[in-house]
Design a protein that fits this description.
The protein has 495 residues and is α/β, with parallel strands linked by helices. The chain contains 15 helices and 26 strands.
Length: 495
């Protein structure tokens, strides 16, 4: 949709300094990627981890941008009529400018933001499924995809840049969407991508040490502090009472607060939890007490599934939804690559999951061991051109918790798959775990199916929702669901 905005209206409410030119200009587009510079645009200079947009200020001038927004000094030709706006934080400014450019679409939507180390993706889909079953039109922004009506857009980041979010919001309004449920990453909060959004609900699932490194968070305290920012920009906060950091997350909050969990103090709590392992299906049933009382069942395994379901119930009860709709949605919900059960046999359970680091794999395997399988079999690999420590750690976790490990290939990228596999093997050798090495992912899947024993639980870990394998800079189609189907046909597998 083409639009023209007054520069002055885009800057309304911002504390800026006019360095040159006039704010009495028309803006045709807001640009933060220098490759998209064009005549009449407003170019916002953003400092990234590897690139500083201020270095493209002259190019913006040459391409006849109407104005640029900066936080550092830039050198421009004296005879240029370009407008230069200075602010302390161009990332923060971009969030508000983007919202204004798209006519503040979030104010016309009910926006639910979910943050946490684990559970964000699954919970967003659970909420979407429940609300849609009750008749709401729901948009989704998350790690796997963005959903706008019938359109599914592949996600580049868990939470997109502020301009892209506002663009998606506007498109959702055009589709008649009423509610948006979105994952809000700590990176997005740190980089002010969601700064201009007044969330109707802010959700906290849990927090563990993750995303700490040179281009992410400097330490756990910084990670926690960024997560907590969501509760200073939402009307209602719904938090996991059982997480030991919940009080730190709520420090300085400005919202009303409700809690969910398994502990006595939770406003909505789960009781009488029972693990279900029947005919190749793993699930869990439980009762809820407090703010909402019902008997629920979800066809995904583990106590983490109870937390995800509880969180979804805590959110959706604010939409006056019948308990039957909630129960039906929980029972039938499927999230691609997140504890996703693939039913091919009544004799053993087969699951696809995105666990791609030691922490996630340990959580998953520990939960599955509670089902007392005959054997717990874990098939996984590790991505190339990533920290080698992840390989040793995942190898050690699988060797310690699984009864049998199949080491295979993931996304080798620019490394040799066998080199990665040897690193994983080094971790397994620190344990007494049995294992085999099968580099080809399809052959590895064929092996675990052909050698499955009655009562086994088999996990294909690491790929999850991904439908490709990245080798030497090329992404080749590879969907584990299709590989399973192909293998079953090739070996004439019958339940």
């Amino acid at each position: 949709m083409e639009r023209i905005r007054d520069l002055g209206s885009l800057l309304k409410g911002l504390d800026y300094k006019l360095l040159r030119g006039s704010v009495d200009k028309k803006i045709s587009e807001v640009v933060y990627d220098s490759r998209k510079l064009k005549e009449g645009c407003l170019f916002i200079c953003i400092k990234g981890a590897n690139f500083d947009g201020h270095s493209k200020a002259l190019e913006a001038c040459e391409k006849k941008a109407a104005a640029i927004v900066v936080e550092d000094e830039v050198e421009l030709p004296k005879d240029s009529d370009i407008t230069v706006i200075a602010l302390k934080d161009t990332r923060l400014a971009m969030a508000y400018i983007s919202a204004a450019f798209h006519d503040h679409p979030a104010k016309k939507l009910k926006v639910i933001g979910i943050t946490g180390t684990k559970g964000k993706t699954t919970t967003t889909y659970l909420v979407k499924n429940i609300l849609e079953l009750a008749g709401y039109k729901v948009g989704l922004i998350g790690t796997i995809e963005i959903i706008i009506g019938d359109e599914h857009i592949h996600a580049q980041n868990t939470t997109p840049e502020s301009y892209v979010i506002q663009e998606y919001f506007e498109r959702m309004l055009e589709e008649g969407i009423e509610v948006v449920v979105m994952e809000v990453s700590s990176q997005a909060l740190m980089l002010k991508r969601t700064a201009a959004i007044d969330f109707d609900m802010g959700i906290f699932t849990n927090i563990e040490a993750d995303h700490i490194g040179p281009n992410e968070h400097k330490d756990f305290d910084d990670y926690l502090k960024c997560k907590s920012l969501l509760f200073k920009q939402c009307k209602l906060g719904i938090v996991n009472k059982d997480d030991r950091h919940v009080e730190d997350i709520l420090k300085g909050h400005s919202c009303q607060v409700e809690s969910f969990g398994m502990s006595e103090g939770a406003d909505l709590r789960a009781e009488n939890i029972r693990l279900i392992n029947e005919k190749g299906t793993l699930g869990v049933e439980f009762d809820t007490r407090g703010l909402c009382e019902l008997h629920a069942y979800t066809d995904t395994p583990g106590k983490f599934s109870v937390y995800n379901a509880l969180c979804a119930i805590a959110i959706c009860r604010h939409f006056n939804i019948d308990n039957e709709d909630i129960l039906m949605a929980l029972k039938n919900a499927r999230v691609k690559g997140r504890a996703e059960m693939v039913k091919i046999s009544k004799k053993f359970a087969l699951m696809i999951d995105y666990a791609h680091n030691a922490m996630a794999l340990e959580s998953l395997l520990s939960s599955l061991k509670e089902y007392s399988p005959k054997r717990l079999v874990c098939l996984f690999g590790c991505g190339g051109n990533r920290a080698k420590s992840r390989r040793y750690e995942m190898g050690e976790v699988s060797g310690r918790l699984s009864d049998f490990t199949v080491i295979s290939s993931d996304n080798p990228r620019f490394e040799e798959p066998l080199d990665i596999i040897r690193d994983i093997e080094e971790g397994i050798l620190k344990t007494k775990g049995e294992y085999i090495k099968i580099p080809d992912r399809k052959e590895a899947i064929k092996y675990v199916i052909e050698n499955a024993k009655e009562g086994d639980v088999i996990v294909l870990a690491g790929k999850g929702h991904e439908d490709y394998q990245e080798i030497k800079g090329v992404k080749y189609p590879m969907d584990e669901r299709l590989l399973i189907s192909e293998v079953c046909k090739e070996i004439n597998y019958i339940q």
